[in-house]
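Saturday, quiet lab. Running sequence design on the structure tokens for the scaffold JK sent over.
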């Protein structure tokens, strides 16, 4: 009696199909993280993916007009953001470094 074979599928394709059917695990940017008390003042206390945290911080910056008008890459921190950044002025490039200290 002949054994059952998978027609046209290699073993790796079969395993990949099982993983996809079972769902993917979130990558580091999609995994919810909990903001610190200081950062929660800006983005809320609920766990969020890192990408959503950054998006909410940018929304806050734009809503409160905290970008330097002469150099839009600079963020002029108000009291809430100064608690997160630990300084009055940061560039958009160093912002993520400061945010990561407030995520767990």
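Result came back. Writing it out in full:
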């Amino acid at each position: 009696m002949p054994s059952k074979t998978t027609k046209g599928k290699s073993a790796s394709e079969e395993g990949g199909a099982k993983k996809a059917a079972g769902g993917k695990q979130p990558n580091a940017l999609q995994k919810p993280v909990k903001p610190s008390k200081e950062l929660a003042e800006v983005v809320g206390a609920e766990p969020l993916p890192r990408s959503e945290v950054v998006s909410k911080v940018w929304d806050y910056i734009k809503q409160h007009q905290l970008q330097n008008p002469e150099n839009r890459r600079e963020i002029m921190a108000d009291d809430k953001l100064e608690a997160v950044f630990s300084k009055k002025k940061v560039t958009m490039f160093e912002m993520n470094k400061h945010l990561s200290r407030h995520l767990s």
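Notes for JK: The beta strands are 32-33, 48-49, 74-76, 89-91. The first helix runs from residue 11 to 22. Ask whether to fix the surface positions before the next round.
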